[in-house]
Amino acid sequence: MRPSDVLRVTAAALGLVGLAACMTAPLPAATGPAEPVQLYAAGSLREAMTEIAQGYEAQTGVPVKLTFGASGLLRERIEKGEGAQVFASADTQHPATLAAASGAWRTPTRFVRNKLCAVVNPSLPATPDTLLTLMLNPQVKLGTSTPRFDPAGDYAWALFRRAEALQPGSYQLLDAKALKLTGSPAAPNPPAGRGSYAWLMETGQADLFLTYCTNARAVVRELSRMQVVAVPPSLEVGADYGVTSRTGDARALQLVQHLLSPTAQATFARFGFGPP
User: Fold this and answer.
1) pLDDT tens digits along 72-113
2) What is the pLDDT, as a whole number, of residue 2?
3) What's the rounded Cα separation, in Å, for the pair 194 and 200?
4) What is d(CA 245, CA 19) in angstroms, rounded to the nearest whole number?
5) Element (H or E) spanning 58, and its range?
6) What does the CA dihedral 152, 112, 271, 45 come to, rounded to 10 degrees?
7) Do 236 and 161 contact (CB within 8 A), yes or no?
8) Computed from CA positions of residues 177, 181, 162, 232, in that sequence, does the dihedral angle turn out positive or negative?
């Protein structure tokens, strides 16, 4: 049976008008050696996407070559001509920008959700109720990612705007003190084998780091003494992740459909991601 015989795509409205997969039959297995599908993905997806890609290859015989990085930087690389076939971003705007620029990319689909948490040095008395006070404390080094280059930075600044509504003057203070330690070309690189956030916290470059809750869980797996503090509802910012593929590329579309499948969604959930 040809792959096209088992793939059906229907339009779906998920905030952005995207693609929703109708998985009516198992994905077909490849009959011979296959070139890898080039998947560019947000760094926060590294653990989950690596496991999903391995399972996809075992199921279909089609390998997936993974490239991870800050979503904004990946989009710029694609725009400059790199050969990505699927782009999984930590927001919906970067893939939407690709789709709007030409007919080369499909309208993106939301495929998972995330949210911000705070990784906090154990010496600080942190709770959801005291989190904003700690962030505003001039003695506390506040780490974030970099807006525009990395959606995690954009989400942090959205949180700062919510803080302004609760406590006037907060935005100016947070905007001025936030240390943009990840997600840009100038960001420091951790030693080989170390996670960026755990290394930045362990070396004292930040006392409190706003990052995705999935990243925060990874920090605690590496440094069990660190605290993960939930952002209170009054400051909470949700993160919708969007995925797109090149138009006219059946193998890329098949991989996107797999990311929306119950099997892949269960893996994302195990790593802390929410459903779209």
Assistant:
1) 999 999 999 999 999 999 999 999 999 999 899 999 999 999
2) 41
3) 10
4) 10
5) helix 46-60
6) -50
7) no
8) negative
Q: Give the tokens for residue 235.
A: 């400051």
| C-alpha pair distances (Å), 184 with each of 74, 84, 179, 187 | 11, 20, 12, 5
CA 211 to centroid of chain Cα atoms = 10
H-assigned helices in 128-191: 131-136, 151-166, 170-177
Location of structure tokens 């459909």: 257
Both tokens of 148, joined, read: 């525009």
CB distance 227 to 126 below 8 Å: yes
How are beta strands 86-89 and 142-145 bridged, if at all? unpaired
Whether residue 118 contacts residue 216, with contact meaning beta carbons closer than 8 Å, is answered with yes
Q: Are 275 and 139 in contact (CB under 8 A)?
A: no
Q: What is the pLDDT of residues 187-238, one digit of tens each?
A: 988 898 888 999 999 999 999 999 999 999 999 999 999 999 999 999 999 9
Q: For residues 49 and 88, what is the distance between their CA atoms, to the nearest angstrom?
A: 10
Q: What is the residue whose two structure tokens read 């956030």?
A: 197
Beta strand 37-42 with 227-230 is: unpaired
What is the rounded distance in angstroms from the CA atom of residue 27 to the CA atom of residue 8? Answer: 12
Name residues whose C-beta falls within 8 Å of residue 134's C-beta, 6 or more positions apart in sequence: 120, 124, 126, 140, 208
Which amino acid is residue 78, in one-letter code?
I
Angle between helices 71-79 and 93-101 (to 10 degrees): 10
Chain mean position to CA 74: 12
Given the DSSP bridges, would you call strands 86-89 and 238-245 parallel, antiparallel or unpaired? antiparallel
